[in-house]
Amino acid sequence: MTMTDTAADRLGSASSGNALELRGVTKLFGALAALTDINLTVRPGERRAVLGSNGAGKTTLFNCVTGDFLPTNGSIRLFGEDVTSFPPQERIRRGLRRTYQISLLFGGLSVIDNVYLACRGVSRGRFSMLRPRRNDTLMARAAELIEAVHMTPLKDTMVRNLAYGQQRQLEIALALSGAPRLILFDEPAAGLSPTERSELIAILMGLPGHIGYIIIEHDMDVALRVATSVSMMHNGRIFKEGSPEEIENDPEVQELYLGGGHG
């Protein structure tokens, strides 16, 4: 089941111009160059995969985009605004979201309470101490997001009792809270069974079209199915870009990352 048009409208709409622009982004850790002269453009609603071996610089790239790391050189623009020096919370307010490789959830709360708190955290009333009413609009929003990630039957389940794959689904619901316009998914398929990976693909492909995302993923089958464009990283640089088909059939990519072929 995909999100309804009404729910998509409530989640916000894409702005004109590019969703993300990185120009000459470099990140140094002492003498080590984790990123070197990264140029990357993502359009509103675009679904891009960033692929590469361990140590290629993918997670450092995400950390620079989110503001966890400030770049040593270069600029980052989010929906036309220069956010290079902005802290993470300011980038969140402008529609950026992220999931992490390690689940960050409240295990002692239910699924719907986790999503409600995420919605509350990016709302104007986030500091209110009042309990939600039965007709609370944020609680209704939380229920919509739970439906979008195929977890409605589990909405009252304690998060600590969820299977690992279900926790990863819940993280996507949290990332959808508060009208996101661009989401960074950091290895969402890691540790999932084949069935859970199929569920993940269905969820990502069912997201509203105006929400763009960048996905870091070691599972090439997942990444190439949910992305419309691909950037390949190697030694802190982007060395190749193209469509999933072009990347999959590229001899240099096959040699470096796929062991000479990809079934």
TrEMBL record:
Organism: Jannaschia pohangensis
Domain of life: Bacteria
SMART domains: AAA (SM00382)
Any single Pfam family the record assigns to this protein: ABC_tran
Protein name per its UniProtKB record: Amino acid/amide ABC transporter ATP-binding protein 1, HAAT family
Location of the ABC transporter domain: 20-260
UniProt-listed CDD domains: ABC_Mj1267_LivG_branched
Signal peptide: none
InterPro entries the UniProt entry points to: AAA+_ATPase (IPR003593), ABC_AA/LPS_Transport (IPR051120), ABC_transporter-like_ATP-bd (IPR003439), BCA_ABC_TP_C (IPR032823), P-loop_NTPase (IPR027417)
Keyword Transport: yes
Entry's Gene Ontology cellular component terms: plasma membrane
Taxonomic lineage: Bacteria, Pseudomonadati, Pseudomonadota, Alphaproteobacteria, Rhodobacterales
GO molecular function annotations of the record: ATP binding; ATP hydrolysis activity; L-isoleucine transmembrane transporter activity; L-phenylalanine transmembrane transporter activity; L-valine transmembrane transporter activity
GO BP annotations listed: D-alanine transmembrane transport; L-alanine transport; L-isoleucine import across plasma membrane; L-valine import across plasma membrane
Sorted UniProt keywords: ATP-binding, Nucleotide-binding, Transport
